[in-house]
Amino acid sequence: MKQLNDSHPAMSCIGNLTSDELSTSLSALGFPSYRGKQVFHALYARKYDAPFSFETISTIPLELRQILTSHFGEDHHAVQLKELHESEDGTKKMLFTLLDETAIETVLIPSEMLNEEGLPKRRTLCISTQVGCALGCAFCATATLKLKRNLATSEIVGQYMRAREICSTDITNIVFMGMGEPMLNYDHVMKAVDILTHPESGLISPKYITLSTAGIVPGIIRLADEQRSIKLALSLHGTTQGQREAIMPIANKYSLKELGDALEYYYRKTKKPVTFEYILFDGFNDTQEDVMRLAKLTRRIPSKVNVIPFHTIEFTAPEGISASLKPAPEQTFHAFIKALRQEDVTVMIRSSSGLDIDAACGQLAYSHAGGSAGVL
User: Is the entire prediction scored with pTM above 0.85?
Assistant: First the structure.
């Protein structure tokens, strides 16, 4: 696993520090500890359209502003917009460059439901946690990029902060479902969650954050033991061990049985329901037998199933089983959902938001409509 070392340029950004860490750092420089809380508040508790620099923090002395500018510079979160693509449905895909010239993609997805002001009721940000991914799932474009490294906390938080500014909107929900496997960058992801949900940041409640994993059992156990308030989703996509092994190599390490046991443990510890994510592939996992096995699994713990259409990754020139995967026909798709509901399974249909700009589920690979996958 490629980690970040202390000398990595992203690690020097102020966006890596929690409120307590800022207070400790400033105390070591001879300032009162409450100055750290003031800086933290100024950094995060501001409108999305308010430009930020240390010089604008009027609540701290000039000397401290100068020290902060000298030490941290103006690149607070280590992500810079390179490209912005907007879908016909309002989805926005942002290509961010990082300080080491690698890149990630982040997607803002507006809901179809509108509020009283005529704006999307939910604005969900799909955040990346790694540059590339090591898991090699056959249906995912990010797998073609391989893993470059984990993201720093500042790069994870930075996606949220930059997206607010770029899209000129507040964000209501976060899903860690972008590039990478969040559980394999656990410490930086959870530190980012702590910053984003801190009362002084005023950004978002943990109940509006969902972490999706391909099935990293130790991460699920750790999430349970730490009593984290965020939600958990499992990318299942198969109801047998053989199915999962065929399209998700991680299944060779953590079996379906181990996953089921880990999810039961998670529910016992947290009393939180789990979401199963299930991409429907033609002739692969779309039979009545799959319905019954999936229904049986959902009965083990309170849960729901998000059924997801398969979105093409043809722009990555897929090979092997990746090239053979096809979306289930519309009739099969809706019949599968109907059959699940007849088994008293709570089912949601994941939308294909951003499909025309290659921003839908599984399509993140530095591409856009008419473009091709690749690194910068």
Answer: yes
